Every structure is written in structure tokens, then in C-alpha cells.
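Incident review: delayed structure delivery

Summary: a single-chain prediction request sat in the queue longer than the usual turnaround. Root cause was a stuck worker, restarted by the on-call engineer. No data loss occurred. The affected request and its eventual output are reproduced below so the record is complete for anyone auditing the incident later.

Affected input:
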Amino acid sequence: MPGEPEFWLFIMGDLTVFGVFFGVWAWGHTHSPQAFELGRASMIQSIGLGETLALITSSAAVALALNHARAARWPAAARGYLMAIACGAVFVVLKAVEYSAHLAAGDSPAGGGFYMYYFVFTGIHLLHVLVGLLGLSIAARSMRSPKRLSVATLEGIGVYWHMVDVLWVVLFALIYLI
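Output delivered after worker restart:
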């Protein structure tokens, strides 16, 4: 199993919290289907798709970087981590553009319903992205140092980033498609 065992407890806890979020989303959708349909209709699907592609590409770059690190190809690993960071940054910029567009249109979390769930759940996910970007930055920086992170630590960072990616795919489906 990649990473440290304690790290998996953290991952499972985080997945459990998001599982509760998904249940709350389903409950809200069941009780206000019209509000959720109106909210979904106002979503900018091209931005959501761009965010999704950015995170999927970033996860592929992390997997490639980890393979390079396992083979002691440090410069290639660093490039992979930097590519992952760049794609993660694209996600953050797209999310900021999307939030700005919704807020400019008068859609805010204070309105309750769909937008409350949208802003809270995607905001918590965005916080996870930022934490993941910090981890990826530490991984990239360590590739230039004789005191590199252990493979287990790099695996843990990778598993966390893949979790962030998978959670976004579910959020994307719930918010933009279903």
C-alpha cells in the first residue's frame, strides 16, 4: 500500500466527510429539485470541464513524477511535480473566475439552497486543492535537494492529490451534470 498507514486514516476520514457532503447534497436536491435545476442551469459547464481536465492532467503528472522519483530521475520528477502544480493552479484560477461570475450575477451562498451547497462544498474542495498544491510544492522542491522526501512521503502526497481529483470528479458530476 503506498504511503504511510497513518496517512490512510486521514484519507479515509476526509473521504467520509465528503461522503456526508454528498449525502447532504442529495438531501437538498430531493427537497428542492427545482432550485437545484435552476442552479445547475446557471453553471458555466465549459469552466467546470476545464477544471476537471486540469485536475485529471495534474494527477497524471503526479503519477509520472512519482515514477521518476522511484527511479531516482530527480530532474524529471521535479518537472512532473511542476507540471502538476501548474495544472492545479489552472484549477484555482478557473474556480476564481467561476466564483466571480456567480457572485457578479447575484448568486451567493447567503441565498441558501443550491448556491449555499455549491459555494461551501466547492470552497472546502478548493481548500483541499491549496493544501495539495503545498504538498506538491514541497515534493518538487525536495527533488533538488540531497535530503529528498522519502518515497513513502511522495506516495502519500500523490494519494492525497488523487483523492482531491476523485472528489472533484464526483462534485463535477453532481453540480454540472446530474
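Verification: The radius of gyration is 18 Å.
Action items: add queue-age alerting; document worker restart procedure.
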